[in-house]
Design brief:
The protein has 201 residues and is of the alpha/beta class. The chain is built from seven helices and seven strands; from the N terminus they run E-H-E-H-E-E-H-H-E-H-E-H-E-H. Strand 3 and strand 4 form a beta hairpin. Helix 1 crosses helix 7.
């Protein structure tokens, strides 16, 4: 680990791969900022029965997030697909386990942003993004959105909201991330890292 580096946690849950791709692009944006480093992490599925739903270590992709990853980050990018206009249960389950941080104010004052992917154009992108903001606000985190000074915010015909990056994946989750969506993901990661570094000074 490099000393004096702002480590940005890019924490996501993905099923079809779209949110994972967005997370990678946000991490790319973070890495474009000198003095910032992205840490990609995911969360396991949850099970409706009392058994382990996933192995302790994922077979591929980003490692599962540990609470220490969250406590030690200088900023947080949180991503989930939409589930009826809300974040997916695995992400909600993970956040529900952070009460000790809430009691101590561990995350208070740290910047955070959110991102999502939906199967339909009007499938709840903005409400999902807001649903992810709510626990972050309870933790006292500072929400970072996407400003309309970014040209893609006015040009996109798919995803992209002032609440955070978004992607229209299609019913089969086979629509690739568009150029505008890609640019907004990278811009969001870059903006989050820049703000984290500014706050750390």
């Amino acid at each position: 680990m490099i000393p004096n580096v702002a480590r940005i946690l890019v924490l996501y849950y993905s099923v079809g791969g779209s949110v994972r791709r967005m997370a990678e692009l946000i991490a790319e944006g973070v890495e474009r900022v000198s003095g910032a480093e992205a840490k990609l992490r995911t969360v396991p599925k949850v099970s409706p029965v009392t058994q382990v739903a996933q192995p302790a270590v994922p077979p591929a992709g980003a490692p599962y997030c540990e609470l220490d990853d969250l406590a030690e980050c200088a900023g947080l990018a949180l991503g989930s697909p939409t589930r009826f206009g809300n974040m997916a249960a695995p992400m909600k389950h993970f956040l529900d386990g952070t009460s000790a941080f809430w009691l101590k104010g561990t995350l208070a004052g740290k910047p955070a942003c959110v991102f999502t992917s939906t199967a339909s154009m009007h499938g709840g992108q903005e409400t999902t993004l807001v649903s992810m903001m709510l626990p972050l606000l309870h933790h006292g985190m500072l929400i970072v959105g996407l400003p309309y000074t970014l040209a893609e915010m006015n040009a996109t015909r798919t995803g992209g909201t002032p609440y955070g990056a978004s992607h229209f994946a299609g019913i089969a989750d086979d629509e690739p991330v568009t150029e505008a969506e890609r640019s907004l993901c990278v811009a969001q990661g870059k903006r989050l890292a820049e703000i984290a570094l500014r706050l750390a000074r």
